[in-house]
Structures are given as C-alpha cells and as structure tokens.
Design goal:
single chain, alpha/beta, Rossmann fold, two-stranded parallel sheet, 7 helices, 5 strands, 39% helix
Length: 182
C-alpha cells in the first residue's frame, strides 16, 4: 500500500506514539495500556516492514489523535493535502480519534478497512461504521485505495491532492510561491 502510494505521488506520513521515560509514572495513558513506545526503545520506532523512506514524514504523538498537540495539520496544509487515506493500528482508538479530528478540520477521509486493525473485532467493526456514519469517512478496501491512487495519478496534477479550492486567503504553499516570485 505504502509503496504504491509513493509511486503515484501520495504524501506518506507515519504517526508514532512517543513518550519520554520520565512520563511513565505520570501519564494517564499508561494507566490504561501500560508503558509503551518509550523514546529510545524499539517499539517507539516504525516497524521495519513499513520501510520509511527519505521524504516521508514522521510525526510523534502522545494522544490517540494524531492531530492533538502535533504539527500534523500544519504539515498537511503546507503540502496542500486535502484527502487522507488512513491505515494503522487500533481502529477504535488512534485511527478513530484521528479521523474525528480530520473531519472537523475538513479533510476528505478514506479509511482503508483491511489496513487498519484492532485486537477486538467487534470494536473494529463498530469504529468503522461509526466513522462512516458520523464523520463522512469513506470505508474502502486496499484494492479500492490502489485504484484511487491510479486514478489520481492519471488526473491533471497527477498526485493525491485535488485541485486547490479558491479561498479568501492563500494557502501557505501559495503564499510561499507568490513571495518567491516577487
């Protein structure tokens, strides 16, 4: 999925839980799930199988939502990204909370149902339905996502970002281009 996206110009963003060792005794998150993703330990890094490449973004988070207290929204807006394809672990926690925030930030949302997971099948299914029903998430398969990547790559502009919508204020990318043009 990731390689196919890269080949078609999709911006790849990895989100990773990262906590400081001194947070273990005080963070309420650890009272629920126990210590995990402590900076400097292997589980704080992206698994080798996902193979991050130069040019991919890696954003650290401490909350379920990847938007909460991170630079994710700013990075996506600077890149003029409007459509998000979600993969990841814990459908009913991190994925769902990030989708909810993406909805309120006005992103076009697709959750790749066979590329998100949970140890609890009922909670996974409930979360997918919840995101579809209440947050306009398109629930698609990997095959449908790959077809969308191909369609977007063949479209004018040739990447995962739809044509910019005219706005009263320019995006950061437009402002930067205009300021460099003189």
């Amino acid at each position: 999925m990731i390689d196919a996206g890269r080949e078609r110009g999709v911006t790849i963003v990895f989100i990773k839980d990262n906590f400081l060792p001194e947070e273990v005794p005080i963070d309420k998150h650890f009272k629920i799930f126990g210590p995990h993703c402590i900076i400097g330990t292997p589980d704080a890094e992206i698994v080798d199988e996902l193979d991050p490449k130069p040019g991919d973004f890696q954003i650290q988070k401490k909350h379920y939502s990847a938007f909460n207290s991170t630079r994710l929204d700013a990075v996506l807006r600077e890149l003029d990204v409007k459509r998000l394809f979600f993969t990841g672990a814990w459908t009913e926690a991190c994925v769902q909370h990030t989708v909810i925030d993406a909805f309120y930030l006005n992103y076009d949302i697709s959750v790749i149902s066979d590329a998100v997971s949970s140890p609890h099948r009922d909670a996974h299914d409930y979360a997918l339905n919840y995101m579809r029903q209440y947050h306009r998430a398109k629930i698609i398969t990997s095959d449908q996502a790959l077809a969308q990547f191909r369609t977007d790559a063949a479209a004018p502009g040739g990447d995962d970002r739809p044509a910019p919508v005219a706005a009263a204020r320019p995006s950061y990318a437009e402002w930067g281009r205009a300021s460099r043009a003189g």
